[in-house]
Amino acid sequence: MQTELFINGRVHRLEADARTTLLDALRHHLGLTGTKKGCDHGQCGACTVLVDGRRVNACLTLACMCDGSEITTIEGIGEPGALSPLQSAFIAHDGFQCGYCTPGQICSATAMMDEIAAGWPSHATGDLNAPVTTSAEEIRERMSGNLCRCACYPNIVDAILEVQG
Amino acid sequence: MSMGKPLPHDAAPLHVTGQARYIDDIPTPRGSLHLAFGLSTVAHGDITAMDLSAVRAAEGVVAVIADLDPMPDCSPSVHDEPLLAVGRVHYVGQPLFIVVATSHLAARKAARLGKIEYAELPAILTVDEAMAANTRFEQGPVIWQKGEFNDAPHYVEGQMEVGGQEHFYLEGQVALALPQEGGDMVVHSSTQHPTEIQHKVAHALHVPMNAVRVEVRRMGGGFGGKESQGNALAIACAIAARLTGKPCKMRYDRDDDMMITGKRHDLRIEYRAGFDDDGRITGVEFRHLFRCGWSQDLSLPVADRAMLHADNAYFLPAVRIESHRLRTNTQSATAYRGFGGPQGVIGIERVIDHIAHTLGMDPLEVRRVNFYRAMGHAPNPAPQHPVATTPELTSQAAEGVPHTAPKPDPGTAQTTPYHMPVEDFIGHELCAELTRTSDYRARRKAIAEWNAGSPILKRGIALTPVKFGISFTLTWLNQAGALVHVYQDGSVHLNHGGTEMGQGLFQKVAQVAAGVFGIDTSAVKITATDTGKVPNTSATAASSGSDLNGMAVKAACETLRDRISDHFGGATFANGRVRTADADMSFAEAAARAYQARVSLSATGYYATPKITWDRLRGQGRPFFYFAYGAAVTEVVIDTLTGENRILRTDILHDTGSSLNPALDIGQIEGGYVQGAGWLTTEELVWDDKGRLRTHAPSTYKIPACSDRPRDFRVALWERPNPENSIGRSKAVGEPPFMLGISAFMAISDAIASCGARYPALDAPATPERILKALGHV
Ligand code: FES
Ligand code: FES
Questions:
Q1: Is B778 helix (H, G, I), strand (E, B) or coil?
Q2: pTM for the structure as a whole
Q3: What CATH number is given for A85-164 in this structure?
Q4: Domain locations in chain A?
Q5: CB-based contact (8 Å) between B662 and chain A?
Q6: What top-level class would CATH report for the domain A2-76?
Q7: Is B245 exposed, middle or buried (0-12, 13-18, 19+ CB in 10 A)?
Q8: Which among B196, B285, B423, B735 is annotated as catalytic?
């Protein structure tokens, strides 16, 4: 079937089986390989992208569900020479080793900062009536859907804190 | 000089923008084909019928490969791993046939359609079953013994189950084979050991090694899981590419990856130790029962390394280690960060903890009285180089040619169970410093008081050290090569045999090169590891990456620098400038002038680690160039009603020698600790009674997440130069910090111990279930 995807500000027309995941559409059909496949089961976060500003696991999202949606992948967040503040912070804080989880971490953190700004509480939020504050505790909780086997967690949290704090 | 600088990873801007290419991201030529394995569903049995007609008929299927004659072998050791099962299957998940299809999905779907019938045989799944049936590798156990066992005032004895560990490299196994003219093959493989892939593929295709070129730019994590476990994919792709004439790619889906590939060895450790009133060990006996899985793979050197680390940081006057390498109908256990070292270390740490509990002492005091003597001066044994004669030359599992090790002169240093003098021991100072900076004693007291007033939640704290031997135990692997070109514009092209899996090796090695030429690292191009550029490389393993390759690169760069210098009748290289007696020019200009004067600007470098010599059969010699040290203090809290637990605070002091790159080293230390703690707490592999792995996805197999890292995490480097002449006097840092995770396990044990009088005798991993069980019997 035909799907129209707005990815990183550009229109892409996708002709694919209705069961094609957004992840496979990006990687295999559109050649956007920055989004990684770690598990294909929605359990590692390597495939995180933004759909209409919200973070989703692209492996658990069908491409056709995104018809007409605005999608931002890691390629749309910044590029060498024009990095987003978060991307620069990941470099400054050594927020990765092998780098395989990194695109997902950065997409996820980008949306997470908006969630905090919008006042969405998390499991780690103490007072649900007070405005949500950024703390290492909040970030750890909110980023726990993005696994990093190299366990760069301290540096990932530091990088996010630098941008958010 | 750029050595010692905390520079970020070489490809940092590419990583954060998604432009860093892994193998699955390489654009494949039109018409490329995709592979999947059909897998065995029983643990042990004879194949009585295999009907693959539905597989062949499935949409997108181009070919199905089931019988190959001769069947290619994937083993890194004794040729006991046919690519596809021949007649008999040995574990659930063993590849039976290859599907070649037009897409990854089509291949995977078709692979499920095979109709296989088996005559099932009894499966050997546990170490007890394997001991009873005497299914093992090598004729019998390997036994090392040293010293006299005398009667001791006290004894402890016990046993401990220690679980395995899935690597869970975030990038799964993957290979891509591109057929070339004249039957040659280029293979991209996510491997820590390109030479092994080259060797195995050449063997499978019946061509010499020079007809196969293997390239790897980076891996999305390896941790030992890509030392031998990528062989099957690369061979399958090469065979299919040869058959179809098309590029062929194979990538394991995550579940397949976990079902097919080997993991860290699990084992049972049995121990009995005698000690005096101060907790000083007079003698200790260990029995290691390793569950090795269906094929030998790297199990022998892994189990050897466990024996080599059965002493950890402690002098054992009398010691006996009996190591059984048992064959079971499960995935073939393989290399994993530490390569058996962690399994050896946790045994003696358990003994020390048990002794302390028996005497009512602080375990730290028992650790201290048993430490090796501080760094002294002892003459070194003369180096010996065995001759390489076996076919699997570059594998860690290739058996050492027995030779006579010179009798080491112990001098004033104490010796390990394998008679190597420990000359560089810094455990005393390092632990004293960490005890102070972590405020260990006051916190231990405060925790005892807190526990007295807290009926449900209990805290625990532990300090554990690590001493880890650096070098491959197969002596001849301790060599490396490098190839360096300087172009006429002064840019440098760097290649060496090490592979990049996130540890920052490429950056460290580029810093070495830039340091020799006195130029910025940005002028050094780091290129993919390529068997066509540097041959006969060893696996990037045993934490040896920077030690070996850094030295080889240094040698190559020094050759080039000296050639340029000689051309000018002497020159110095610093800050991008080359100064001669009468001129001061840029490095680029110096390169251009040297080129015009017909000076060769390409050089190879080579390094072989000195001093080492090892006789594995007799368990004697100097297997290690040096030791790397470290220690960690972990504080945990457990919930005695649910068994849940949290790491509250971790303090680490780790020995990096003169660090080549402190930022990268701290990352390795933090990551190693978290992975080590994961091994011993949340990461549990469960096989059912049919031998099926039930934890084959991240939904059921829990690696540490962001919320699991210690709440308060303090890491410091112990930066004293390595007494041995290593690259920049640094120390290897890939594996040693992994064992610092043991402090988390011992802290949990300490928390449990506060709930009763008996010793917790906790098994690993300390899941909530195991913690509750231990609480039940203290
Ligand atoms: S690949 Fe989508 S969550 Fe793992
Ligand atoms: S950097 Fe390797 S998985 Fe996160």
A1: coil
A2: 0.94
A3: 1.10.150.120
A4: 2-76, 85-164
A5: no
A6: alpha beta
A7: exposed
A8: B735
